[in-house]
Amino acid sequence: MLKELLKLFVFVFFLIPLEKAFATVRTFEASVSLSELFAPQADWQAGIIGNISGGGTLTVKIYYKESNTLVYQATLTSTATTYSGVGVNYKRSDLGSGATCYPDVWNSLDIETALFAIERKRRKDDGKLHSYLSGGMTLLIEITENQGSIQTVKIPGIGIVDRDGGNALFYPDHYCYDLKHNADPITKIWKRLKMPRLDQGADVLVAAHRGFWGDNLGAGYPENSTGAFEAAQKYTDVLETDIMITKDKRMVISHDYSLSRLSNYSGPLTDYLFDLNSNILDGLFLRKRNTDVSMYPYLFFEDVVDILLQRKMVLTVDIKDVRARRVNGQCVANCEYDPATHGDAAKLKIKESWMTCFRTCIKIAEEKGALQYLAFKTPFTYDELVAYVPETTLCKLLFMPVIQPKRKDFLDFTDGWINRGGKKVIAYETNFLNEGDPYLQSFTRDGVRYENLLHYVYKKTGLRSGCYPEEPIGQMGTVTRWVEWKMKYTVNDRRGDHYWLMAVPYGKIMVMTSDRPDIWYKVNQIYNMTGQ
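That's the GP-PDE domain-containing protein sequence above. Prediction below.
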């Protein structure tokens, strides 16, 4: 009896193709937004990157889940380091009833035609012909590995998928890693930020600093107001704003420590937010840039999180720690925070004030189910963050390391974040000032020559660098957090020169944290129209 069973096993085994017998098959579900997929700027590159040993194959098949209709198929027969794969020509009759709107002969690499055909059939069946491309689809991704291993798969409308069926741009604990969240507006925004396009004339991504404010000769919305944040969405879905802490540990949205410039507060400039309890803001209203008082109140961090949830926008959080004030080389306020007079003890107090804000913002976002809406700018290393916040929490967050001007260890700082932060990073803010800045000089690292720090960041990570252009220089100049006005000498600080910034190598893919998202929206359009 045992011999007969063994014979039967051998017979059946050899009836099965070897590639099936030894193959590993994984199937994953993913959502896709048709409006994103068929947008003018959509990236239609597709294929497989993977390693194959003798005679092996790697195959990716994608099906429209509802009808189990094949919409994409690619096979790799040799190791590839760029997205590659061979398709198959199918007759429409081979693909079942779900393919009735396919062409007579369809190549399996043509996912664009397939998904549009599926959409045509869906709208024809439900009678909603006016609703083309307005919804989404659920797809099934089938990965088959035979004597090989897939590293990543690139799928239009979904992005870059790892062999475990997650979004390869994100850390596995992050909300956006789950492909079921792929069509979520928040995932789409962060993917867009993390996938710069060098094939376009320009691919600047704008983060609206303090919202969209100061327009109409200063009569527009006041900075950091509900109106300014909502108006910014005409130009971008990414906000950036400053967070400051009050004496009773409330997180206030404010650029200045002092209240007088920004509101109808009647006290002296030396009344600083970190020395005041949050009830001081009751009854205060924000000023417009022309100094008129609006009907908009100060916002707390939880208010901005509510705006993000309501409008489906994201925020890069710029925490302003507590500092000492120095005038003409002398400390005049808050001197226990002055490293020049109190050394490492003062540096620790500054760091701990930042970390208190960091932890409080995380707590608020967690309570509102909004961690995925945030990316934290930080001048600290990843290891410094771990000392204050558990790794299990950091793994759910996104970060934008800030490389301050004149930082001498900028390459070591960048490498530290590359090695420890990895996929938790969305971009690197490289705050250069002019063409003489070390960040913009060419250098050699580990035997490889790079044009500048922006080039290094892109080649090492595939991510954007970032800059704060500081465009709005009025008759009084620019203002510090202490409400000190400074007139910049633009030869020393050229960040407000749009044409110069676009001429910096890899500058055309930067994140511009700008007070004028409308201008950068137009600059991006101009460079894409002219290709210059």
